[in-house]
Amino acid sequence: MRVGHGVTAGQQMEWLVENIWAKGGTGMLAGPPKTGKTWLIIDLAVSIASGTPFLGKFPAAVGPVLIYSPEGPQSCLDDRIRQVAERRGLDHSELGIYLVKAHDLSLDDEDNQRTITLAVESIQPALVIFDPLQECFDGDENRSEDVKVMTKFLTCLAREQECASLVTHHIVKTTGGKQAGNKMRGSGALFGFGDSYLFLDPLKNKQIKMEVVQRNGTPAEDCILELSEQDAATSYSVSQGQNEEIKKQDLGDRILLLLSQSESPMSQREIRQRLGGGNGVYRGSLNELRADGLIDHIKAVGWELTETGKKTVADLKGGPVRDSPIGTNRTGPDETP
Questions:
Q1: What are the residues facing 199 on neighbouring strands?
Q2: Using H for helix, E for strand and C for coil, what is the string for 260-325?
Q3: Tell me: the pLDDT tens digits for 58-75?
């Protein structure tokens, strides 16, 4: 590319899904088991294939989507796509969503990489999804040398084919407080290569917090999600009370950071005077932090960090602050395996 004829410094960011996923971008969706990662990628796929807003909120560009998800039968995945589409009044068999029929594909195997590239060239998807990492990666996720074989391929695929990619993954079990990128299981190279990342954290009442991280461009604000059922069709939606829950979580982090700066325990009154706000809010946040093992209360003295709380604060301060050659099925009742 000749200089002066490509991307310029002032050029506006292009989105596949506004403030959620970069156009032609790479990245990961990570969360603990049973947080509905597959439901969320289906919502994303239906949004892009139909040009309808992701989660009913974030505008999406239109384009085909290719999904490789070897966990469980494809008929189950096809039925989930049908449910999400029906919640939007759509016929999923009319959408440009393709399921890979092949099994045992590895993103770090050269032969499989060529096969995947041929599929992308054939279908020309706007997004290709690999769900989950452990089913499409043969290397050691803790070794950066192994991980970089996969991430280099995904980056080349994105740049050469103008195809965004998303890989789902698990996060480590924590008691809270870790910055998003540090929560992912495996090598730090998994957080270093991508353009867009989505992180899911379970909350109370079966709600999920979704945090968005962007290498470039403005990320969407954190969302509280609920998995709901309507007329036998399941899908995610953004909770109406999300702002209050997010503010409560942010207050917890602020309390931890404040206690880390104090040389002696602090009373609830002292904490409230330093941070501002009503007394009732602090009572609930302090009790939740104690239940999580992050702080403890010394009678008649005040609140202080536990050893677990000190490690959590260290994380807060120091963290990265169409039928194809491999065989695909287009979703729909007549073409499921």
A1: 30, 211
A2: HHCCCCECHHHHHHHHCCCHHHHHHHHHHHHHCCCEEEECCCEEEECHHHHHHHHHHHHCCCCCCC
A3: 999 999 999 999 988 899
How many Å apart are CA 198 and CA 203, to the nearest integer?
16
Domain contains 7 = no
Residue in this structure with the two tokens 């294939």, named with its chain if needed: 49
Please give the model's pTM, rounded to 2 decimal places.
0.73
Give CA–CA dist 308/323, Å, rounded. Answer: 52
Cα(74)–Cα(68) distance, integer angstroms: 10
Does the bond joining 333 to the residue before it have cis omega, within 30 degrees of 0? no
Q: Is pLDDT of 197 > 90?
A: yes
Where in the sequence is the domain holding 56, given as residue range(s)? 15-241+321-330
Answer whether residue 83 shows pLDDT above 90.
yes
* Angle, helix 144-161 to helix 110-123, in steps of 10 degrees: 20
Find the CATH number of the domain harbouring 226.
3.40.50.300
- In a domain, residue 5? The reply is no
Instruction: Write down the mean pLDDT value for the chain.
Output: 84
For 307-314, the CB contacts below 8 A with 24+ separation are: 308/175, 309/177, 309/256, 309/259, 309/260, 310/260, 312/174, 312/175, 312/176, 312/177, 312/178, 312/256, 313/177, 313/256, 313/257, 313/259, 313/260
CA distance 125 to 322: 9
Residues 96 and 189 reside in one and the same domain: yes
Of 77, 56, 63, 70, nearest in space to 332 by CA: 77
The angle subtended at Cα 292 by Cα 288 and Cα 298, nearest 5°, is 75
The single residue listed with the structure tokens 């202080």 is: 304
- Please give the pLDDT value at position 17: 97
- Lowest mean pLDDT segment, chosen from 43-47, 117-121, 285-289: 285-289
